[in-house]
Amino acid sequence: MKTKSILILATIFECLLIVQVVVAEGPPVEWEKTFGGSGSDYAGSVQQTTDGGYIIAGRTDSYGAGSWDVWLIKTDPNGIDIWNKTFGGSGNDYADSVRQTTDGGYIIAGTTNSFGAGSYDVWLIKTDADGNDIWKKTFGGSFGDEGYSVQQTIDGGYIVAGWTSSYGVGLTDAWLIKTDADGNEIWNKTFGGSKSDQAYCVQQTTDGGYIISGLINFALGNMWLIKTDADGNKMWDKSFGGGSMEAGYSVQETTDGGYIIAGRTDSYGSGPLDVWFIKTDANGNDIWKKTFGGSGSDFAYSVQQTVDGGYILAGSTNSYGAGSWDIWLIKTDTDGNKIWNKTFGGSSDERGFSVQQTTDGGYIVTGNFISDVYLIKLSADCIDQPRSDLTGDCKVDFRDFAVMASEWLICGLDPSMQCWE
Q1: Taking phi first (over 0 means left), then psi (-120 to 50 degrees means alpha), and beta for anything else, what does residue 267 get?
Q2: Helices 2-19 + 398-413 axis angle, to 10
Q3: Distances (CA, A) of 328 to 72, 188, 195, 296, 365
Q4: Digits of tens for pLDDT over the chain (421 positions)?
Q5: How far is residue 355's CA from residue 315's CA, in Å, rounded to a whole number?
Q6: How far is CA 47 from CA 77, 161, 197, 258, 348, in A?
Q7: What does DSSP assign to residue 416?
Q8: Residue 304: helix, strand or coil by DSSP?
Q9: 63: closest CA among 79, 45, 85?
Q10: CB proximity list for 130: less than 8 A, separation 6 or greater
Q11: What are the residues whose beta carbons fall under 8 Å from the beta carbon of 205, sequence distance 6 or more?
């Protein structure tokens, strides 16, 4: 009897080692929320706010005045809607970026064809802490102009990145606009050649200048990285790719003074389009490049350096997951090697556009679930994981014992494991 008990304990230990692989699946989901009405609603940006909740910006045709309206949603720390606001006119109006400002309000960047001078104009909206608009500004000429990214600058003003077909030398040019605290333009700069060139993301750098990511030559383009001084004058630019549909959708200055860029590539990887992930030094020279993807098309739209020195990426995949497109979240180490990845979605179409590490070490992700705004909160990565933590949540509780019992039962019923000798 004693021998049999020892064998049972040994079997349990063996099964513990087997199920330990769940850690590679990443941290568990704490909660998921959807927001929307009878129409189509999408999110482009999310940020954790100082009260521990979240602010989401996107677009809606379920609510508001026009075909599409800018949609701003404020939630509590559990993802419960506190308030939501729409902004727009009779046309199509979109938001692609939102940031909380130092006064507790919000700055939103997007595109409008309800207001402004052209078919589409860059739209900048400032709200108070309750989402009530304080001012709105449009930027553009007689043709199409779009805004994709905004950040408050150290002087209290704002920097906006997008593209313009009203100004510049090409079909479209990357466009950088600097405003004061009231949204009045101080300067603007265009970057590009005779083809179509676009900017998708901007961040102020520690030297007071700006780093911009986008693409150069839309049809057969490369990922594009531009560094400017504080007045928007180009210091250097770098392109990456094989000339076949490369783009950089997100960029961030890293703690070593270099940059991390995330986007897509058609020149490298295993599928028609793969996630492309590039680390550069302070001068934009690539240190390493990584691709992630399968036989389908895969994109990364958002990247952030995490507190452990690694990176978190959010995007979309139709190589993996349950549906035609699923949200894809990838965690890497400091050298860009994948630690874990997770997909979110059902049998339909889900896309991920924005991710941020939260103050508890977890992650907040937004995108769309079919035709609703989708918000997902994940727990923190498990750094000092107890050996008996089988669910990957950094603690040992009844759920781990349930997994252990289940695996022990499977082990006992599998003759090949010889559990009962």
Answers
A1: alpha
A2: 110
A3: 23, 35, 31, 13, 10
A4: 445 444 444 444 444 444 444 446 799 999 999 999 999 999 999 999 999 999 999 999 999 998 999 999 999 999 999 999 999 999 999 999 999 999 999 999 999 999 999 899 999 999 999 999 999 999 999 999 999 999 999 999 999 999 999 999 999 999 999 999 999 999 999 999 999 999 999 999 999 999 999 999 876 789 999 999 999 999 999 999 997 889 999 999 999 999 999 999 999 998 899 999 999 999 999 999 999 999 999 999 999 999 999 999 999 999 999 989 999 999 999 999 999 999 999 988 999 999 999 999 999 999 999 999 999 999 998 755 555 665 555 666 665 666 566 555 555 555 554 443 3
A5: 9
A6: 12, 18, 28, 23, 26
A7: G
A8: strand
A9: 85
A10: 83
A11: 211, 227, 253
List, in order, residues 6 or more apart from 375 with CB less than 8 Å away. 32, 33, 34, 35, 43, 46, 54, 56, 75, 79, 364, 365, 366
CA distances from 23 to 154, 304, 342, 383 (A): 40, 21, 12, 11
Report the top-level CATH class of 28-381: mainly beta
**261 touches 254 (CB < 8 A):** no
Determine the Cα–Cα distance for residues 52 and 79; give it in Å rounded to an integer: 10
Single out the residue of 34, 79, 61, 9 nearest to residue 362, CA to CA.
Answer: 79
